[in-house]
């Protein structure tokens, strides 16, 4: 049991990572949030199934591969950049209940899964990504509350009115609730992507916009976090965020330019 406070508004919450147990197996809140995010995504996709060029059943088939592979890749990515610790404690690689999933690893694994799935089923890769990335953003918004329950992914100390009080190694600290910053930002990204998707004029636009917006958000939030994955003295997520922001801005600009030229030729 851990205690979190929001001192400025007089809130104190006692948290347990385990929601309930089935026999000797503890079901963690983080797992519940992930499952809940998946269910919400599928419900949204089912609701718009008649407007999609890809069958809903095909997307369900994809999820059977996408979810486990993305989770495995998120774990591998995390462990690779905590190499010193896991080299000394290799058995703890499998202790996923203790936390340690990196979203960028999940995104990479998920993108590769979608690519090979589309290749096998003869589906347009970018079209499929455009359908699912808004719900990836929504899932991230939901999943960050798992970080709250685990008392992780928080930021540096602050005196801002919305600061969060935690106990770290027996010491009380008041920190940035960076899990909340990202959850709110991801929710806003979700709404932006849903709107863009309804007016999408070329495949890949929604996907590019997701990567641009999320990488921008993550770059600044990562600056506040204290648990960042590091390469020497550099925060890996900031490097990757910056690279994604630049690359996909260029790709989106080129695609927009080509689309405008096509539209102009059609109007002649």
Descriptive overview:
The protein has one domain (2-196). 29% of the residues are buried. 63% of the residues lie in helices and 12% in strands. With 268 residues, the protein is an alpha+beta fold. Helix 5 (125-150) packs antiparallel against helix 6 (178-198) and helix 5 packs parallel to helix 7.
Write the layout of secondary structure elements.
Blueprint: E1 2-6, E2 11-15, E3 18-22, E4 25-28, H1 29-47, H2 56-80, H3 83-88, H4 103-121, H5 125-150, E5 164-168, E6 171-175, H6 178-198, H7 205-224, E7 230-231, E8 234-235, H8 236-267
Antiparallel strand pairs: 1-2, 3-4, 5-6, 7-8
Helix pairs in contact: 1-5, 2-4, 4-5, 5-6, 5-7, 6-7, 7-8
Tell me the overall shape: globular
**Number of strand elements:** 8
Strand order within the widest beta sheet: 1-2
Number of domains: 1
Major pleated sheet: 2 strands, antiparallel
Query: Rg from C-alpha positions?
Result: 20 Å
Q: Quick check: average pLDDT?
A: 89
**Residue ranges: pLDDT <50 for 5 or more in a row?**
none
Quote the distance from N terminus to C terminus: 68 Å
How many alpha or pi helices?
8
H-E string: EEEEHHHHHEEHHEEH
- Helix fraction, binned, reads 55-70%
Strand content: 5-15%
Structural class: alpha+beta
List its traits.
two-stranded antiparallel sheet; two-stranded antiparallel ribbon; 8 strands; 12% strand; globular
Describe what is shown at a glance.
With 268 residues, this protein is an alpha+beta fold. The chain has helices at residues 29-47, 56-80, 83-88, 103-121, 125-150, 178-198, 205-224, 236-267, and strands at residues 2-6, 11-15, 18-22, 25-28, 164-168, 171-175, 230-231, 234-235. It is built from eight helices and eight strands, in the order ββββαααααββααββα.
